[in-house]
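TL;DR need structure tokens for one chain.
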Amino acid sequence: MKLLIIRHGDPDYAIDGLTEKGKREAELLADRLQGEEIRAVYCSTLGRARLTAQPFLEKAKMTAQYCEWLREFNYARVRVPYLDREKIAWDLMPEYVDKFPDIYHPTLWRECDFLKSTQVPEAYDAVCKEFDAMLGRHGYVRDGYSYKAISPSHDTVALFCHYGLTALLLSHILNCSPYSIWQHGFTAPTSVTVVYTEERAEGIASFRMSSMGDVSHLFAADEASSFSGRFCECFTDDTRH
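>> reply
TL;DR here they are.
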């Protein structure tokens, strides 16, 4: 089984849509995905993900299953001392996160003081439960750190979603803290992250990531990758702070 986890195109967050650049990116993505034998498509219910999936669905004459659990993971929030308000759990200043020695532990991250009294652990588990249910429908059932290959296949499944949610899904199947990816990973708009199963022992499947945030379809068309979601490379840069 192969999973293609796809971030939406360059976003216009004000209207939950795509910029003109994002629309071009989505068209180029649709052409790139034509080379994949995709058997099923799951999509976030948010507009920017739906609009990103639409060109591919039209060209492939396919339909998607629209899932609330694939929405951006921005509804479970935390309060941090450097802001007088709550904010999304996965966009935190490194100097704050680094104060918690267990933040990158695969299970103890949820016990950190700023998280354990919030809805974040529960919301994380709810998404993972839905994700595993979807994998189960395709023949792979969670069993500890790996999956029972009940009905193994070469099916390719595409998920159109968001960066915060992508990192959450990856942390679950790669068995690490979501903060390892939230804080240190990045997937550009319309990038494709590829994860596939390996069944080295019969009936036992584990997931391995072969690429993260691939935007080769943009480079092939001389379309620059969007900066959306990144911060300045150097503090003196005239880019997002």
